[in-house]
């Protein structure tokens, strides 16, 4: 399923129509969505990252389609998502970059993390406690993230550098890895990323299912690579860039880009 990295191409009305035809003709569809930056705008206060107006209603249209499996794949703790999305219907979500899996039934599964990794993550969080406010340090089962979006924009580069300098020795000692994301840095356990969610879900689905993954961040690149040429890999952004995703869905401030995409998919599947 691996795919090469290249420049994304703009997702056009013609591509949307072709995708719609595939959905209309399929017996099974599997659609993956990132949350922050995809269903919701990126905001400084991550606890108030509400979805774009109209996203919840569009998302629920997909949830009632029986032959479509709709899956959220987020870097957030999985139990943080429902209070923000406020879906009136149960849904499947993978949180903490694939470490947690919440099924629509409410069953929550979590990957076991070694004691050594837990110790490294705890040390990493402690090292940045004097540099960042408590709300800017996000602890997850398999990672710890340092958010700098609420800091003065001119100071962000220096803060990112400072965090990385503090964390690099810890990552090396405890076998962890560092990853940049939108205005932040994350230290995580290697091998636990969004590709785990993709592989796990597709193992349960027919080989001929029509698939798509829609995301906006560097953390979504693992998922794009996992889906590869088998499905539609769509990056949300303002302009084409080098990515494992094949397509770029141009971002709009009001969220109409993702709302229209979801509604069109739901209409094709109905």
Tag the structure with descriptive keywords:
34% helix, alpha/beta, 8 helices, 15 strands, four-stranded antiparallel beta sheet, nine-stranded mixed beta sheet, 270 residues, globular
Describe the model.
- It contains 8 helices and 15 strands.
- Helix 1 runs parallel beside helix 8 (256-269) and helix 6 runs parallel beside helix 7.
- The chain is 34% helix and 23% strand.
- The strands form 3 sheets. Strands 2-15-13-12-3-4-5-6-7 form a 9-stranded mixed sheet, with helices on both faces. A 4-stranded antiparallel sheet has the order 8-9-11-10, covered by helices on one side.
- It has helices at 13-25, 55-63, 78-85, 115-127, 156-174, 194-203, 221-227, 256-269, and strands spanning 6-7, 9-10, 29-33, 68-73, 92-95, 100-102, 108-110, 137-140, 143-147, 177-181, 184-188, 210-215, 232-237, 242-243, 247-250.
Strand content: 15-25%
Radius of gyration: 18 Å
- The overall average pLDDT, rounded, is 93
What fraction, in percent, of the residue positions are helical?
25-40%
Q: How many β strands by DSSP?
A: 15
- The ordered H/E elements are EEHEHEHEEEHEEHEEHEHEEEH
Largest sheet: 9 strands, mixed
Distance between the termini: 29 Å
Q: Please give the count of helices.
A: 8
The SS-based structural class is alpha/beta
Side by side, the strands of the main sheet go: 2-15-13-12-3-4-5-6-7
The 3D shape can be described as globular
- Low-confidence regions: none
